[in-house]
Design goal:
By secondary structure, the chain is an alpha+beta fold. The protein has five helices and eleven strands; from the N terminus they run ββββαβαβαβαββββα. A seven-stranded mixed β-sheet has the order 2-1-11-10-5-6-7. It has a two-stranded antiparallel sheet with strand order 3-4. A two-stranded antiparallel ribbon has the order 8-9. Strand 5, helix 2 and strand 6 form a beta-alpha-beta unit. Helix 2 runs parallel beside helix 5. It is globular, with a radius of gyration of 18 Å.
Length: 233
């Protein structure tokens, strides 16, 4: 008998913005649902003209890459994608740039605030990726008093960002950002992308910590429906 594919819809999250279609998968199920962003924000004007595309998708294994960061002792360290994701449940979220308005005021602080809740849902590692050098990421971490619950990872040359097809060229903007990462958030289990939420340019409508908390609830429900008692009576 062919396996059924459950469909989930959020009814309690509303906004004036358009619906975002989200794809996700559990160990045996693939499913999709519609989600409205909790707090839609305008994209920063510098990002509006960026034309971007992505090659990574749900079900893909993340490509190997090496990222860098400064640890709590001020020592430069490196971490591979395997280090971050093997036998773990990991949230990777990317920002167009350290110290930029939405990234500093909303995106990163949201994950810092919700880190304990996400870890209570079984997330082992939460990491922010940006095409900035490790010194800039270190300064940004100190400026926002991030602490150790969220790793700030430098993809300085954009190798990982380009490998997953999430780069965007902002060279035509007067700020001088050059090639940066598209904003996204993904949930990765043992190296496999389970939830992927990509934003247009620098927009911030569906890749927040609150969104990722909602997705972990959906994944938990899918597993419960598969292996637990019936919730339908």
């Amino acid at each position: 008998m062919a396996a059924t594919t459950p469909s989930f819809a959020f009814s309690g999250i509303s906004s004036s913005s358009k619906l975002h279609r989200i794809s996700a998968s559990s160990s045996s199920y693939s499913y999709s649902y519609s989600l409205r962003p909790i707090t839609p924000l305008r994209a920063h004007s510098s990002f509006k003209s960026a034309k971007i595309s992505a090659t990574i998708s749900v079900g893909d294994k993340l490509p190997e890459a090496t990222l860098s960061y400064f640890d709590s002792e001020g020592e430069l360290q490196t971490a591979t994608i395997s280090d971050l994701t093997k036998s773990k449940k990991t949230i990777l979220f990317a920002v167009p740039g350290a110290f930029t308005p939405t990234c500093s005021q909303k995106h990163l602080p949201g994950f810092v605030e919700k880190a304990e809740e996400l870890k209570a849902k079984g997330v082992n590692t939460i990491a922010c990726v940006s095409v900035n050098d490790a010194f800039v990421m270190k300064a940004w971490k100190a400026d926002l008093n991030v602490g150790d619950n969220v790793l700030l990872l430098s993809d300085g040359n954009g190798d990982f960002t380009k490998a997953i097809g999430c780069e965007m060229d902002l060279s035509d903007n007067p700020i001088g950002l050059g090639v940066r990462s598209r904003r996204y958030a993904m949930l990765v289990e043992d190296g496999i992308v389970k939830v992927l939420n990509l934003e247009e340019g620098g927009a911030f409508t569906a890749s927040s910590a609150e969104d990722m908390l909602a997705y972990t609830v959906v994944l938990d429900l899918a597993i419960y429906v598969k292996s637990g008692p019936s919730v339908f009576g």
